[in-house]
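The data are quoted verbatim for reference:
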Amino acid sequence: MQSKLGNRPKPAFGGSFSSAAWLLRGISSVPGELRLRSAQLSFVAQERGSAWDWQLRKLERDACTANFADTLQSGDHATLFNEPLAQVSIRFPWYYFSGGLVVTTRRQVYRLSFGQLASSSMTSDELETVSTMRRVGKHWMRLLARD
């Protein structure tokens, strides 16, 4: 069963919060920052990560975000989406184990992880990463919970 906050979630406070997040695109990912500020939810990509050029161009087209791919390829940060919180749907699927979320905007569905993808054999550092991912995810759950 998925934890779903519905179509009109409200932040639990009027402040702001941000955390590292990875946009998941098939077998590739784009590192960035998920931000909540003034009831606006945004994802700012910090580099191209393991995404191929065609994936960045497709993200740009699907999100209607001009120059997203070129901005990332030049080494600058690029905002993929910046939406009013009241106009997005947010889910915390059980199979993410609190380590990520799914954001649905008017245009697109985005899968985000709060930790970099790990290798198939977990080291003690990677286990700590999983713990951190879950802690950050639970904080996002509290912030985005309905009143």
About this structure: Confidence is low (pLDDT under 50) at residues 1-13. The two ends are 21 Å apart (CA to CA). The beta strands are 3-4, 16-25, 28-37, 40-45, 78-84, 89-92, 100-104, 109-113. The helical segments are 53-63, 68-73, 124-144.
